[in-house]
Amino acid sequence: xxxxxxxxxxxxxxxxxxxxxxxxxxxxxxxxxxxxxxxxxxxxxxxxxxxxxxxxxxxxxxxxxxxxxxxxxxxxxxxxxxxxxxxxxxxxxxxxxxxxxxxxxxxxxxxxxxxxxxxxxxxxxxx
Length: 127
Prior knowledge:
The protein is an alpha+beta fold. 45% of the residues lie in helices and 21% in strands. It has helices spanning 2-14, 25-47, 79-91, 94-101; strands spanning 52-58, 62-70, 105-112, 121-123.
């Protein structure tokens, strides 16, 4: 179960794509959200059939990636362990590092296929 959730979160984070154009990362967040909301579910469904994905911006600098219909039933996980496990992968992304350097954050929110809200995972820095 834990391994599946880590892989699911990694797939979600990887599907975020590039920050477009010459804008800064935070300035590009509306474009990233629009792209995810238009094509994110189809990208995520390749890795997790039936899963859905949407995005929004909170507080002007936090990219929130919302994943639904995750086949975890009523089981949950420790968000600190998942964050620690995924931090090297997140920080390997130039896009996320740029966002963090500008003071931005990424939060992953997931809901199981039973409607259970799973603990959010937030990244705000590398290291």
